[in-house]
Amino acid sequence: MIELNSQRLSVSIVSHRQAVLIESLLGDLNRVCSGRDIEVILTLNLPEELPFNADRYTFQVKLISNPAPLGFGANHNQAFQCATGAYFCVLNPDIALQEDPFTHLLPLLVQSQMGLVAPVVVDGKGILEDSARYFPTPWEIAGKFFGGQSRVYREQKGAIGSPDWVAGMFMLFRHDVYEEIGGFDAKRYFMYYEDVDICFRLRQRQYEIALSRDAIVIHHARRSSHHNLRYLTWHVSSMLKFFLIYYRCKIWPS
Length: 254
Known about the structure:
By secondary structure, the chain is of the alpha/beta class. The chain has one domain: Spore Coat Polysaccharide Biosynthesis Protein SpsA, Chain A (Alpha-Beta Complex). The chain is 29% helix and 26% strand. It has seven helices and eleven strands. The protein has helices at 19-32, 72-80, 102-105, 138-144, 175-180, 194-204, 229-251; strands at 5-15, 38-44, 60-65, 85-91, 95-96, 114-122, 132-133, 160-161, 165-166, 170-174, 208-219. Strands 1, 2, 3, 4, 5, 6, 8, 10 and 11 form a nine-stranded mixed β-sheet that branches. It has a two-stranded antiparallel sheet with strand order 7-9. Strand 1, helix 1 and strand 2 (38-44) form a beta-alpha-beta unit. The longest helix has 23 residues, at 229-251. 36% of the residues are buried.
């Protein structure tokens, strides 16, 4: 049993030969989170040489090198096993930070019913991205095969929103909540829809999901599923798996 530090924030980042992005993100964390108790768990999902010294930062960087590539959920679940912080953050390499988002996010997790919090995500030009959404309907899923779009959460009332789910590019959990729900469903999903699924399971357990409009991060998007047949296949497969689970629970609730 790992002894948890009640103040520490564990940040899980997975690299797919993205060393340049990783170095930039670690630099951002070092700059904007100065003085915060952070540990970074960096997983190299593919063999690569890091062009920087991991000891140069004010926080500890724990390195995991996978002998074979793992999926999104499996990588973060693996990182969670060596996380010592009371809080666990899943963070994509292509996120950039201009200020400390945890100043606004961590206080929300003090509420016992809060399961997951996330910041607003914008692109490099400051345009709002679709990182917060409603759970998909059958018609929406069918429409995606013909180029349709997801229903984006756009409510603007107050500083805290409550979307059905938030994208896996930035998700902040309490350690105990992530452990309670078993983390991401890595057996069912290799890539895509792990974020939708974990939010659904949180809501099944009566946990809330919050979007803090005071916390803003930048996403330099790289959406491979739009251009690569293999990624598109994973995306569609995961979408259909979630669809079956979600609507089975709607029709035959436990």
